[in-house]
Design goal:
Strand content: 15-25%
GO molecular function: DNA binding; DNA-binding transcription factor activity
Keywords: DNA-binding, Transcription, Transcription regulation
Domain HTH lysR-type: 2-59
Radius of gyration: 23 Å
Number of domains: 3
CATH architecture of the largest domain: 3-Layer(aba) Sandwich
GO cellular component, one term: protein-DNA complex
Organism: Streptomyces montanus
Oligomer: single chain
Length: 301
């Protein structure tokens, strides 16, 4: 019989990319994690890791095994649901995560609504960026995440996760109130091609959206300032230091001398809900997903 704990170590190596990273996430030493995989390989009579440069990689046999492991995890989620089939009313603990804007506009009101409608359900919210949310789901630390679609996310075909579209969040061009485009109802991004720009920091998941939107309009923005927080960017704009693309979901500091102008090009980012495979059927998660879908249409109005 396969030892599921050892199988989970192998899944972690695949998820995190190295034995050392997997061991860190599982609170093992690297040698202990390696021992778990070696023992699993002996139990199955196949090699699961092979040398690659200074590290290791999963063998074809390990890849085949992981396909079954992901199915086992999904079946386990459904088995837990079957055991609680008589508990149709959401109850217990629901653990969620999201990036700051998603928490402010979606997860916080969702939690408030659930508290009113399902008093036996306790919702916990954790701020986490996209990659961390997928790690938390994989580790079983959360049950539901709201994430931004990025090129670095697991593919939609990844059997470990159930990712579903939630909403499109448009980017508005934000300019100082005194700017020539401030009075426009809509603007073509090409009209701001020669401006100085304020953009998200290089490792931000939103930076590719901004650069791609400008590229699709035929120019590369002259980025002179970088920021991590949308309100920091808004303050830079307010002081006449450049223009910026800022998502409509981002609530900016009131009374700043700035104007948000809609773009005819319709640049946007996509927000997704994500659970472990099979996890969306749990009553608490299903109730949360219903609330999020109800909130989504009004969030970007």
């Amino acid at each position: 019989m396969i030892d599921l704990r050892r199988l989970h170590v192998l899944r972690a190596v695949d998820h995190y990319g190295t034995v050392t990273a997997a061991a860190r996430a599982l609170h093992f030493t690297p040698s202990a994690a390696s021992q778990q995989i070696r023992q699993l390989a002996r139990d199955l009579g196949v090699d699961l890791l092979e040398p690659q440069g200074r590290g290791v990689r999963l063998t074809p046999a390990a890849r085949s095994l992981l396909t079954h492991a992901d199915a086992i995890q999904a079946h386990w989620e459904r088995a837990e649901l079957d055991l609680r089939a008589d508990r149709t009313d959401p109850a217990g603990l629901l653990r969620t995560s999201g990036f700051p804007v998603a928490i402010s506009v979606l997860l916080a009101p969702m939690a408030a609504h659930l508290r009113e409608r399902h008093p036996k359900l306790c919702v916990r919210i954790q701020e986490a960026e996209v990659t961390e949310s997928f790690d938390l789901l994989f580790e079983g630390e959360i049950d539901l995440a709201v994430v931004e679609a990025t090129p670095h996310n697991p593919p939609l075909s990844d059997a470990r996760f159930d990712q579903q579209p939630l909403l499109d969040d448009p980017f508005d061009l934000v300019v100082p109130d005194t700017h020539r485009l401030a009075g426009c109802t809509h603007v073509d991004l090409r009209d701001a091609a020669r401006e100085e720009w304020i953009a998200p920091v290089p490792d931000s998941p939103c930076r590719p959206h901004v650069l791609s939107a400008c590229g699709a309009s035929g120019f590369t923005p002259d980025v002179v300032h970088h920021a991590m927080d949308w309100n920091v960017m808004a303050h830079l704009v307010a002081n006449g230091l450049g223009v910026a693309l800022i998502p409509r979901l981002a609530h900016l500091t009131p009374h700043l001398p700035i104007s948000r102008v809609r773009c005819t090009d319709d640049p946007h980012r996509k927000l997704l809900t994500c659970t472990r495979s099979g996890g969306h059927e749990r009553p608490a998660v299903a109730a949360a997903l219903r609330e999020l879908r109800a909130l989504a249409p009004t969030a970007v109005a």
